[in-house]
Amino acid sequence: MFNLTAQAGTQDFGHGATSTWGFNGAVLGPTLRATRGEQVAVSVTNALDQSTTVHWHGMHLPASADGGPHQPIMPGQTWSSTWKIDQPASTLWYHPHPHGETARQVYRGLAGMFILDDPATSVATLPHDYGVDDIPLIVQDKKFDDAGQLDASPSGVTGMGILGDTIAVNGTVGPHLDVTTERVRLRLLNASNARSYNFGFADGRGFALVGTDGGLLDTAYETDRLQLSPGERAEIVVTVRPGENAVLRSFPQDLGMGRFDRFAGGDDTFDVLQLRDASALAPRPAVPSHLVGLPRLPRTEAVQQRRFELTDDAINGQKMDMNRVDAAPVQDSVEIWKLVNTDGVPHNFHVHDVQFQVLSQDGAAPPPPLTGWKDTIFLPPNVPIELIMRFSDYADAQTPYMFHCHMLYHEDSGMMGQFVVVPPGGSPSGTGHLADPT
Ligand code: C2O
Ligand code: CU
């Protein structure tokens, strides 16, 4: 049983005592951990002065346990849910999801990691000693006003929402890690409101990308850059030598988005974490090139296709409406979702409950970082992306799951829709109507 309390506190980011929110503490929340097959129970108490929810991002669970906008927790109340862990070993996370308030609540500090274990889909030779050679990194950008308080006003870059100029990692500005092993696994979570990062090391060293949102990759991918948009996670393994200092950094990236580029991984350079290596490092095995079996979902299994266009704070021209159901996939069925960002503003796309696979990006096979299980994907402007996913084995025609842009200001502004999973032959209940599938 996990007990979380959303509460107010203060944290020192280098500006004195800054008011923050956190779970069971001043800022962020404890890392939760569970093993496949386990029945977990969570109990969340809201000690804040406004309504909240807690959503389990990336988790496969019944819609009523999902913690989206339909499961509000009023101040002073406690909400409980339970589900069975049934998905690969992965790095998930949790955060509030009250419609219209998600951006500010996450920005104030409500977020935590949820690590899933599963012997059948993990690799024993990867670093896995939590806090020693297996390190969670929750990366967020913050900005401060003259009084040292969090500035949650929208940035001057119209349409982006909150953008910070200071990087906090696990709630700490300018962090370092004392490395004691020759390989370190970093579990990166971009828990920022709007900013994407383009991670790499200051000295140009490469690293192995071993996992993405929903689990390990089939094959380790050697690279020196990795872009993560808000909500995405990655597991990387970096090799260090005694006495070195390695700096994990976010680098510029050209995404062809003009004035938005620097906020979508562009011009800005930020140091994220300094790895301070001891003079003697305990040996760790090399990263194997083959990691886990990853069954592909074949295109031929899809029974439905839907198209979603993200533009102007809406999806297919409609803003989020808690009383409208936008899609009703059939329990256990496979669908192809075609996405396109047509307004040239940075967007990404997150689907609750499922882990999807990328069928194509701009008509071509996806690049290696997009070949594993994903629940959130960056949408470059005017680049069509096809996802394939199997919907839940839990049917509940009344309780929706969400899909949305995970740039939180866009989500709060209406770039979100709802789907229910219906039993075969079923239809959604309630007053909503369905968008026409194309
Ligand atoms: Cu990370 Cu609908 O959320
Ligand atoms: Cu967006």
Automatic annotation (TrEMBL):
Start and end residues of each Plastocyanin-like domain: 14-120, 158-240, 301-423
Protein's UniProt keywords contain Oxidoreductase: yes
InterPro entries to which the protein is assigned, alphabetical: Cu-oxidase-like_N, Cu-oxidase_2nd, Cu-oxidase_C, Cu-oxidase_fam, Cu_oxidase_Cu_BS, Cupredoxin
Transmembrane segments: none
Key words of the record: Metal-binding, Oxidoreductase
Pfam (any one): Cu-oxidase_3
Family statement drawn from the similarity comment of this UniProt entry: Belongs to the multicopper oxidase family.
Name of the protein this chain belongs to: Multicopper oxidase family protein
Organism: Micromonospora vulcania
